[in-house]
């Protein structure tokens, strides 16, 4: 890796990721004392492994990753099919169990689907002079995303599936999709949402939406988690109740407190100052990703960065929104903070790709 590339890289992205990971480890330390810090110890390992994976990714040209993406896409589709035949965990067949650890192919699919989308769109643009606005070409792009999304929905994992849709929308916008398709999409969504709710969504998905609208309707059942989460965040005040001292956290009222509701733990024990700072860090992080997309040396880099931005935007908004009662609960992790090896490794690999893209820019072309 050349000196110029290292200087061009947006190191602010890495700094923010390390800070968020450190905050997550502190929160996990407090949230796992009753289990002798089992998940906290594993998360330290995952962070180390993830940083190694990021460094490796930084050293591989992203254009090479795009070239081999069809093979990787095929492998991840096979894994997504295979995981459907595994034993359900919490009602979902999303994990392969490997000894003491679990592997979630839906997380890694985010990387390979975005790279494959960049491959497909770049081929269309090179062949048709940057015009993707023909129905057949749009359909091809939609099929590339639709297959993994369908398989993930079958698990079921609606949160991860929604992340793909947000990423696709931002990628298409970056690629210059015609306004008529955007308008048509809004119309289709407006018409289909009530139909999906009434005739397609399973009962547990409808229940989550109903509880989101009125959690007090079932305070001891489906609305319990969100009510406890809001109580925890509210109890934290400005500076928090202190590590190992949160009532909802330490008395077991928050569940699952190491993954979906880790932000509630932070809000209760570290307070608004830290919880608010996390939001500021995410805003900076996502803004920098869009800057990488804007300044990428080619369209492929811009597409990849835009897709990664979409993944992070959805996860941050959905996780923080759901624990505050602003969005329905979907069970998506908070990037770099929630417990989970698959999620952590995926986030750092995407970060490595972003650093790779930013390093290839001509921002400091005169540096020797």
What is the CA-atom radius of gyration, in angstroms?
21 Å
The secondary-structure class comes to mainly alpha
Which stretches of 5+ consecutive residues score pLDDT under 50? 364-368
Please give the share of residues in helix.
55-70%
Strand content: under 5%
Care to count the β-strands?
A: 2
- Count of folded domains: 1
Number of helices: 15
Mean of all residue-level pLDDT scores? 90
Description:
- The two termini are 13 Å apart.
- The protein has helices spanning 3-8, 11-31, 38-58, 62-67, 69-82, 105-127, 135-153, 158-174, 179-199, 203-213, 224-236, 247-250, 262-295, 299-323, 341-359, and strands at 96-98, 101-103.
- α7 runs antiparallel to α8 (158-174), α8 packs antiparallel against α14 (299-323) and α14 packs antiparallel against α15 (341-359).
- Strands 1-2 form a two-stranded antiparallel sheet.
- The protein has one domain.
- The protein has 368 residues and is mainly alpha-helical.
- The model is unreliable at 364-368 (pLDDT under 50).
